[in-house]
Amino acid sequence: MYLTQEKKDEIFSKFGKDKNDTGSAEGQIALFTHRINHLTGHLKKNRKDFNTERSLVKLVGKRRALLDYLTKKDINRYRAIVKELGLRK
């Protein structure tokens, strides 16, 4: 089970304005977080899968860049998405 269209629609409708709002920073961050969690679970079972490890590092970097963008653009949106996804302590 990876990522179906229904799951993507659910993520974007929850974190974006609607399911077609795929460009919002919050929607993209939520999607990246879902994929990061999936890849992390995969890597716990397959420690030597270095291609997946590289993909995971790239995804974390993309998510970090979007989070940095949100901090500069609107700190309240940043705090809301971090709290909702549980990214920080």
Automatic annotation (TrEMBL):
Gene3D superfamilies on file: 6.10.250.3130, S15/NS1, RNA-binding
Species: Leeuwenhoekiella blandensis (strain CECT 7118 / CCUG 51940 / KCTC 22103 / MED217)
GO cellular component, one term: cytosolic small ribosomal subunit
UniProt KW keywords: Ribonucleoprotein, Ribosomal protein, RNA-binding, rRNA-binding
GO molecular function per UniProt: rRNA binding; structural constituent of ribosome
Entries under SUPFAM superfamilies matching the protein: S15/NS1 RNA-binding domain
Phylogenetic placement of the source organism: Bacteria, Pseudomonadati, Bacteroidota, Flavobacteriia, Flavobacteriales
UniProt GO BP: translation
Oligomer status and interactors: Part of the 30S ribosomal subunit. Forms a bridge to the 50S subunit in the 70S ribosome, contacting the 23S rRNA.
Record-linked InterPro entries: Ribosomal_uS15, Ribosomal_uS15_bac-type, uS15_NS1_RNA-bd_sf
Official protein name in the record: Small ribosomal subunit protein uS15
Record family assignment: Belongs to the universal ribosomal protein uS15 family.
General function of this protein: Forms an intersubunit bridge (bridge B4) with the 23S rRNA of the 50S subunit in the ribosome. One of the primary rRNA binding proteins, it binds directly to 16S rRNA where it helps nucleate assembly of the platform of the 30S subunit by binding and bridging several RNA helices of the 16S rRNA.
Short name of one Pfam family: Ribosomal_S15
The keyword Cell cycle belongs to this UniProt entry's keyword annotation: no
